[in-house]
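Annex B. Sample input.
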Amino acid sequence: MDLLANGTNFLLILLGFGLLIFIHELGHFLAARWAGIRVDAFAVGMGPTVLSWRRGIGLTAGSTDAAVAARAGHPTLKLTEEELERHGIGETEYSLRLLPIGGFVRMLGQDDLDPTATSASPRSYNRCSIGKRMVVVSAGVVANLILAVVLFLVAFLAGVRFEAPMVGEVRPGSPAALAVPVDPEQADPGLRSGDVVRAIDGERVDTFADIQIAAAMVRPGHDLVFEIEREGMASTVQFLVRPSVDEVSGLLAIGIGPASGTLLATDEEAVPFVDRMLLRTGLAEAGVTAGMRLIESAGEEVRTFAQVQDAARASGGDPIPTRWRGPAIDGQPLEVTAALPVDPVFERLVYPVPMPAGAGDYEFGLLGLVPLVRIEQVLEESPNAERLEPGDVVLRVDTLDGPKLAEFRAAVMSRAGGAVRLVVLRDGEAVPVEVEVDRGGRIGVGIGYARELPLVARPFDRLGVPGPDGLATEASPAAPLALLPRTRLLALDGEPIEDWRGLREALRSQTAEAAASGEAATVELTFLPPTPEAPAITDRWTIAADAVAELHRLGWTSAVPAELFDPVYTVLSSDGSPARAVQMGFEQTWKMAALTYLTIDRLFRGSVGVEQLHGPVGIVHLGTRVADRGMMYLVFFLAMISVNLAVLNFLPLPIVDGGLFLFLLYEKFRGRPPSAAFQNGATLAGLLLLGGVFVVTFYNDLMRLLG
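Annex B, continued. Sample output.
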């Protein structure tokens, strides 16, 4: 599990999380001391005591209570301050508990689990004035907010690196692709790769995360106004974007990824993919390796991957001359010149009905035809490492012949925790294989399209047409052919078809005149059905004018995808100004506090699901991954958690500080506290609520850890 993959990160986050709890409880403790209240316990964590310290007793494994009773003859809570002093014993036990999920300060005359607890001692909590008790109750929240400001200040003084608010990949048919310009004369519909988001609904945007948060937190069914800076335009352009639910995250999103830079990724997870792609494209043979930076494309200096894609689109299919720079050797920068291949862009074919969550709702193909599925990679930890091989082409999954990629995923997911039978094409032979499926519905492989083979998967009869009003359907251009799955395409108008790139070029070549005149086109397709000893068939295929036009809109893309390059980063910094850092710290604290309340609101509205919530285990797990991004990002992360801890603690719920403060307000204005029955009932309800939240978040955390 990632949680335990890096012991240093795990320890850092655990210590950081403990610091947040310690500061919170320290706020209560110092306020209680200021108010003259006797504090019997100061604990970080919950559950059994691991270590404790008390003046006069010293450091003890477990609680100091037994040592106090042995010396003074009575338990600590039954001893007065005078008796404790006479025996040289401090009144407060400082302890570290087993479970790092909270902490507490136990004061004389105050018990979270028994709101009616009182004491006759003049130093008891209940004998203090209401004003002082309000200070004590709210001091933990104030301490966490102060800590957040300090942590943000440190982070901004040093500078924190984030993904820049630049649009990278725009998913076809997504809200971003369908974005409507406020002034249609300024721009065409849709956001583009390379667009920089400057503001959303008038609020400044600093990072890509700000875009994601704004989309996730919008009221369902409402538009966001994006202010976009686009290269070549003198002024910014406004677009209306209506977020929709993302099938992977379950949150409202607009369907974009962060922009990629030109540095090939070097993190542990990405390197195998980078190496494999460099081998496939021939770049490895030219000397390009992971960690190199692409500095020139088609004779132009490049700073973002969007510029590389521009060169690919303009290439007409020819490789792009590129220059790469690597780490210096003997003081001399290593530079490599290589031809970057380009791949043809295929149509995005949308399923006419929703697919199971996680399977995907579209394919990439041509005119309703899609390649078969190929096993690209078999992970080392895969339970099927000795059953499947890279290059295997899936001919059948269970009883489904020639599955498309999303159909293959759905079939495997339906066998979670069991096994699935495959037939794969390996070295020209059909090989039956039974593979193991884990509880998450995975078989431990990476998959892609077998575009090197002119074989078709199950053709689409109908296609989905995404639009602002939902999903409509239309007949697939390939439907009249009635091709069977695993049909081999042989020729188009007598021109042999060797692979899917060849099929695309043959279709574009034979329909060029029709495309120029805006008319339908008729071609002759020769194919071989998958049935044994079946003869080749030649069929006339009429392709509608709109399908011909779509075919000729297809362009070219870099053979090395954007995902293999590090993102474009921006640095949030006060430029060395402490005053500016303080201001940024207060601004970020206020922003995080407002966002926490907004998240709660969206939970009730249903646009944020409970499955998105993190508990302590999830926070530590997430934090171990955050720590890989550098110490300042970790400091920033802890500042955010500190704000969240403050806000959640001050919600008007029984058992947390906000509920206790509400009781004190009632007592202030009514002259008496709420009835014992009401306080006990409210406390029980609060315990049940918090217990339920803990169970749900722990379950969420566990599911994330398991996959």
